[in-house]
Design a protein that fits this description.
This protein is an all-alpha fold. Helices cover about 75% and strands about 0% of the residues. It is built from nine helices and no strands.
Length: about 210
């Protein structure tokens, strides 16, 4: 009996993976997530905020503008003025003009890089936590689906499994774009860090 019900469930799953054919409403999907929709929604909002905020903060013009880098490499430090102080590279040049050199200048660079990393660790945590929250919601939903007296009918079981799986689907929909964005931001940070290293080495070479 149980095997027949399970076969019927998988047969209906192939035609209607989440059991929402009749309603076709996203609201039903969200309702199926239960209380887990709240932490998942929080993860989603935080991920969007962090991705947008870091994407703006890690622009080349905000960190290591081409004009500042060229001025330093060409030895035209006088062209780097107060207006460039809004960028990380501009601030490092200004500190070099104020007398910072050697380990002091490198320490300032590390401090700036730490500031640029801000929020990326939280984004990585969201990437890891969102699928786990979804899986927890699915396990909880499946645990409450089966009554003490035995298996429910196939239609109820089919819809119940679909609703229970909705949290896993939502968690993955949050984690996958966040993972792609986190990797892109991490790569962008590596490139900007390399540009700052070139800048610091060029400044140090002028002290020698």
């Amino acid at each position: 009996m149980a095997l027949r019900v399970i076969k019927q469930v998988f047969k209906e799953r192939a035609c209607d993976p989440f059991g929402f054919r009749e309603s076709g409403e996203v609201q039903t999907l969200l309702q199926g997530a239960g209380i887990f929709i709240w932490p998942l929604s929080l993860c989603s909002l935080l991920a969007v905020f962090l991705i947008v905020e870091r994407a703006l903060a890690l622009r080349v013009s905000r960190v290591a503008p081409e004009s500042v880098l060229k001025s330093v490499l060409n030895g035209n430090l006088d062209q780097v003025g107060p207006a460039d102080g809004e960028s990380v590279a501009g601030r490092l040049v200004q500190r070099w003009k104020d007398g910072a050199s050697g380990e002091v200048l490198k320490a300032w660079t590390r401090n700036e890089l730490i500031r640029l990393h801000r929020g990326l660790h939280l984004l990585d945590s969201i990437v890891a936590a969102a699928p786990l929250l979804g899986l927890l919601g699915t396990v909880t939903g499946l645990a409450t689906l089966f009554p003490e007296q035995g298996l429910p009918d196939s239609q109820t079981l089919t819809r119940g499994v679909g609703l229970a799986l909705s949290t896993t689907m939502i968690g993955l929909c949050i984690a996958i774009p966040a993972l792609i964005a986190a990797n892109w931001l991490g790569r962008r940070l590596e490139i900007l860090s390399s540009r700052l290293d070139v800048l610091v080495e060029a400044l140090e070479a002028r002290r020698r």
